[in-house]
Design brief:
297 residues; alpha/beta; Helicase, Ruva Protein, domain 3; Rossmann fold; 2 domains; seven-stranded mixed beta sheet; elongated
Length: 297
């Protein structure tokens, strides 16, 4: 963007800025350059994206250019747009996000839908559902907002993450339906068959592959929520060992997994001998993304 003291800068309108920034982002290999430019400019101006199109001829003030320029710098440094804006839409709900939590992704909506497909519309008895490693709370908040009947619980080892999740529950108006606990996986949970369903998006990326991820991910998102150990299965294996004791007979363990982990999940299920059904749900790219395991009756 031209220096604000140049004659051209004094005349730059919203349309001029969008055109220039789009090309600037293209030259720095920023994904979705036009959309990103619009989102950041709308944020800098305190407008909705649609408002930009209604005000193409509006010039930017010095302070507006300064605010926008800083947002552009952050994106050029590969900071994710969701962290810059502090929000991300998931399941039709706008979630607060910070660098303390993973950014909710569309593929995780597959897990939410798969869980809803297996939750009763009307419960004849209390149905308990827990989300382990809840992060932003995207999964459990989406479930509670869509299916209010069950009793919902969520845990995370990160206190900062739990604060974000609790805030998102409040924003979505479902705080009274969810109880949050701090602790490592099942540590805060009483041993015993309490839950009809356990859901989780655990870390499942092999350690050696973390550095190969896009810089937006490996340099900005919490590594602890990504790193699944040497083979990517450390936390998944632990859930297979500890979940059966907390599931009711016929209850479901549902996990988001890596695109190539189907065979490993089948193997772990066989070793567990606690499940009488193992199924998979594909993501939008056709990969087996959600593992669905039912505890034996």
């Amino acid at each position: 963007m031209p220096n604000q003291n140049s004659p051209k800068a004094l005349r730059w309108t919203i349309l001029d800025v969008l055109k220039w920034t789009t090309e600037h982002f293209k030259s720095h290999d920023v994904d979705s350059p036009r959309l990103t430019a619009e989102l950041l400019l709308a944020e800098a101006l305190g407008l909705g994206r649609i408002d930009l199109y209604l005000r193409f001829d509006q010039p930017l003030s010095d302070s507006e250019r300064d605010r926008f320029r800083e947002l552009v710098r952050r994106r050029i440094r590969k900071e994710p747009v969701a962290y810059i804006l502090g929000k991300k839409e998931f399941w039709g709900i706008e979630f607060d996000v910070t660098p303390d939590v993973l950014i909710p992704r569309p593929d995780t909506e597959i897990l939410v839908q798969a869980a809803l497909d297996r939750l009763p519309e009307v419960a004849g008895e209390p149905v308990r559902v827990i989300d382990l490693g809840t992060g932003s709370g995207a999964i459990i908040v989406a479930l509670a907002a869509t299916r209010p009947g069950p009793l919902y619980f969520a845990s995370d080892i990160s206190f900062p993450a739990l604060k974000v999740a609790a805030r998102n529950a409040a924003i979505a108006g479902v705080s009274e339906r969810i109880r949050f606990y701090a602790g490592d996986w099942f540590a805060p949970v009483t041993v015993g068959p309490l839950f009809r369903m356990i859901v989780s998006n655990p870390p499942y990326i092999p350690t050696r592959e973390i550095s190969l991820l896009a810089p937006e991910i490996h340099s900005h998102e919490p590594i602890g929520a990504l790193d699944g150990g040497p083979d990517g299965l450390s936390d998944i294996s632990r859930l297979f060992k500890e979940a059966p004791a907390r599931l009711l007979p016929g209850g479901f363990l549902m996990l988001e997994i890596g695109y190539d982990q189907k065979d490993a999940v089948i193997r772990l299920a066989g070793q567990s001998r606690a499940f009488d059904h193992v199924g998979f749900v594909k993501d939008y790219g056709g990969h087996d993304r959600v593992a669905v395991l039912r505890k034996s009756l």
